[in-house]
Amino acid sequence: MTDNAIEISGLSKTYAGAGSEPPKQALKNIDLTIPRGSIFGLLGPNGAGKSTLINILAGLVVKSEGSVKIWGFDQDVNPRQSRAAIGVMPQELNLDPFFTPRGSLDVQAGLYGVPRSERRTDEILDMIGLADKGEAYARNLSGGMRRRLLLGKALVHSPRILVLDEPTAGVDIELRQMLWRNVRKLNEDGMTIILTTHYLEEAEEMCDEIAIINQGEMLIRDTTARLISLIDTKTLVIKPDDTPPADIPLPPDAELERRSGGILAINYAKTKTSPGDILAALRDAGVTIADVSIEEPHLEDVFLDLTRNAQTRAA
């Protein structure tokens, strides 16, 4: 048995054009493996192909080329087993307004062939914080409660893999924290998590590894720490003792940003300029330093840098 939860090879998807429009290639020869037991981030701008990839994994979209294995089951050879191994929490609030949360979970479990004696409806309702709303109609639930119910529906068949498609888009802080507590607990219990999100700080905090796709192509895949280390720029943050002079000559590769409160933020390339060189230049300019710190790059910097370079090449 493979150590990978997901194995994708040469995956492509082309949608037929409407009317006179040309066909659109949403995915282009994607190769990707996702280890079992990991929390894996799938990032990319709008229209990058993330939703198409997720829908192929869920069995909702038919691929054009390539192979997909989910928990060792080839989608083409064992479609039922591969679909049973994965649960998807979609971004859209697609709930029947006339079902209660309990009814929704039972119906979903029935669709997956889970016998009544093996259903975990009460357990799931408690986990997602809807135990006291089990008999309320979905149409009367708040937006946050509906999103919790989507998570519950994705878990009714005890999948090995859980896909979260923009799970915290537009939700409040309390719901976001509750969701991440549940996700961490599920992962600790052995479930593989695949996350797409626009909140890059979430991916940076939650994910072991990250893949970035743009315009249907895989740009990069690596551990979160190594992706962040790709950015050469750091920021030296200086708090002066008094008002700094208007003119501060700095090394050629350093750029000065003046922040509120008299704070000086100097961006520099760590492979070209050292903090010592910058501090020496500040002293020479007559800046008396009260405090100094260094800001490290974030995943957002990597994401923007990679997607910007890809768009430049495409142009």
UniProtKB/TrEMBL annotation:
Q: What positions does the domain ABC transporter occupy?
A: 6-240
PROSITE patterns assigned: ABC_TRANSPORTER_1, ABC_TRANSPORTER_2
What's a Pfam family this protein contains? ABC_tran
Q: Which residues form a coiled coil?
A: none
InterPro entries with a match to the protein in the record: AAA+_ATPase, ABC_transporter-like_ATP-bd, ABC_transporter-like_CS, ABC_transporter_ATP-binding, P-loop_NTPase
* Molecular function in Gene Ontology: ATP binding; ATP hydrolysis activity
Under Gene3D superfamilies, the record lists: P-loop containing nucleotide triphosphate hydrolases
Instruction: Recite the UniProt keywords alphabetically.
Output: ATP-binding, Nodulation, Nucleotide-binding, Transport
Q: Which family does it belong to?
A: Belongs to the ABC transporter superfamily.
Entry's PANTHER family? ABC TRANSPORTER ATP-BINDING PROTEIN, ABC TRANSPORTER ATP-BINDING PROTEIN NATA
The protein's name is ABC-2 type transport system ATP-binding protein
Native source organism of the sequence: Palleronia salina
